Amino acid sequence: MTSRDRKLDKFLEAVLNDESLPQGRLDDPEDVAALRAAIELRALREGADVPSDEFLDEVRRRMIESENAPAPDPGVSRRALLRGGIAAAGVAAAGVAGAALDHAVLRPGNPELASQSELAPDNGEWVPVVASSSLGPGRVHRFVTSGAVGFVSEKDGVPFAVSGACTHLGCLLQSNAQGTRLDCPCHNTAFSNDGKVMFSQLPTSPGPLPRIRARHRDGNVEVFVPRQEA
Amino acid sequence: MNDGTPGACPEGQAEAEDAEPAAARPEEAASPPLRAVDQDAYVDWDEIYSDNATRLYRLMYSKVGNRSDAEDLTAEVFLAALRPLRTSASRREVRAYLAATAQTVLAGFWRRRLGREVTTIDLVAAVRAMDDPQPSPDAPERAKRLLEALPDNYRRVLELRFLESRSIKDTAREMDVTVANAKVLQHRALRLAANSTAGEPT
Fold first, then answer.
1. A156 neighbors A164 (Cβ within 8 angstroms)
2. Chain-chain contact of A1 with B64 (C-beta, under 8 angstroms)
3. Which of B8, B57, B173, B190 is buried most deeply by CB count within 10 Å?
4. Which tens digits make up the pLDDT trace of B142-165?
5. How does pLDDT run across A149-201, given as a tens digit for each residue?
């Protein structure tokens, strides 16, 4: 058995023994795919994915304890808490794409709710996403990096980029056919290319899209996004 | 017919529309607003939990393949969602919120554990699976297809080990090979299975 096999075996054994996966690294994409296949196979077993009553009761008990703890701000209405929660989920989902956003700007009652935040990762890098010549009036370009997804267009003659995840629940936005709007596929909500909410079916309008820094460099448009992990 | 000008609607036509019998608008007759509201709301957190805990656990299990991590992640999602999400939200909002939270929680888990995301949660598919009262996630279907496509000895080693939970010794004996060979066979089979489904959504 090769050392590569032994590495993979450690994870497979955990899956086979129904144990927590160990900390470690899998470098080969084939091995990552093999582990994924192993996980899928285990989930195929009859009754494998049914939670135990003990576990369900335990989480229920912890939730009751947690709910009885003092609320962070008793003055905030239930509806406002709901709004804040959903906005936070949008942030959380954006976090998957590596966006390090400030939760505070989306907290209910915060006067900055409607202002546009900037996606400014602690550990970021400039990544070229499109040739500068491809930008121009009425043109919008979608980009995906390892840490973010977004749209870049031109505003007042300079490149302007925004996050491509809806601030409501994090669904990935799509540019409409005319390139004039970023539509959310989940709920009837649309943003302008510079991130402002154009319309929304939601009772409370979601926040504007976080801005991503963009610049022209060496004939390309570059965006400042979370650095790719080695 | 009006003249096509927005807002121009001759008196007579407006009256004709008002007089239209209700039966001609089945979409209104079929869903009385009160019933829809009742069905759409949860009574309290306990109901949210009872209705969604098993669905969420299944989703997590299909993404990590073991009970221990699936339990931890499911608990993490509910405890994270409890405070911000209030019960006045609609069922759909609650499930969308839980799915979005689950997506983030799973991504964080993989980054901490392996430094890369082995599996991910697709929000649209997750909400669809959670809306379905009898969830049948796509993953098992894929796993079935993935086994059927394999050569006999590869399929057999995966069946014995992953579906029947047989030990490696048992598996080797059953297949009449050495333990070392059984392990190699198992790895090759998984890699081949993974290749044959490459490009499918996870």
1. no
2. no
3. B190
4. 667 778 889 999 999 999 999 888
5. 999 998 888 899 999 999 888 888 988 877 888 988 888 788 899 998 887 77
B53 and A34 within 8 Å at the Cβ level: the answer is: no
| Residue A159 in tokens | 């490149």
CA distance A86 to A169: 6
* CB < 8 Å from B in window 140-179 of A: 169-171
By C-alpha distance, which of A118, A26, A103, A102 is closest to B119? A26
Q: Give kind and range of the element (H or E) at residue B143.
A: helix B138-148
| ipTM associated with this complex | 0.75
Structure tokens at B201: 């959504």
DSSP annotation of A122 = T
A9: tokens are 């075996």
Beta carbons of B82 and A40 less than 8 Å apart: no
For A60, what's the count of Cα atoms within 13 Å in the CB-facing half-sphere? 18
